[in-house]
What we know:
- The mean pLDDT is 76.
- This protein is an all-alpha fold.
- 58% of the residues lie in helices and 0% in strands.
Amino acid sequence: xxxxxxxxxxxxxxxxxxxxxxTDYT
Length: 26
C-alpha cells in the first residue's frame, strides 16, 4: 500500500506539472 500511495502522490505531482499519464505513448 505504501508503494501505491507513492504512485498516487507522484501522479498528482505530474498532473500539477501539466503532465497526464492517461495518454498512449505510441
